[in-house]
Amino acid sequence: MVIQVVAYPQNDVLRDDPYAVIWSKLPSVASGSSPLEDIIQLISTAVIIFEHTSYIFDNQRYLEDKQESDPSFNVALKQYMSSPHAGAVMKGVSDTVRTYEKAVATSTKENESLCSPAKAQLINAVIEITLNHRLPRP
Question: What's the pTM?
Answer without folding.
Answer: 0.72
